[in-house]
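pasting for ref
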Amino acid sequence: MKKIAFAAFAALTLAGCAVSPLGESRPDPVVANAPFDPAAAAFIKKSGSGSIEGHAFLKKADGVIKNAGGEIVRLVPVTAYSRNRFAQLYRGAKFVQANDIPKIQPDPAYVEYTRTTKAESTGRFTFDHVAPGSYYVATQNIWKREGSVMSEGGAFFEVVTVTGKEDGPIRLVVNGQ
């Protein structure tokens, strides 16, 4: 059984036309550098024997654990397009603060080559029948303190590789750190 600790992502459905902080549209930095290629991502549509189990959460400033209960968790094949997309969204890190997540719409075909599941109230999630390949596992955990207008938490991700030779599920701790 492989154990991988990582910081995950979420706002995955963001990347096409980018919006600057002033609200004007900019050319899509993702497509300009690496157009989406369905053939490169096709392995996600194959059925495999791999399984990924995880627990997504963030630690709040006061040390309290905030599970990502009810959040969408995405499984995204690693391709030139997704590598470039994640580089644009995360600016070289594996975590981005809630109020700093860029608004970049994805190529519509890209979304069809991802899988999603919803984290349980405990923040736990599972992807079954995963084909061999490298994937981003991404989610978000965003909330507001009572009386606050600012969001806390953020989006996070990690890369995991399924070989097809695992003797059990790949277990992940997805904690944004």
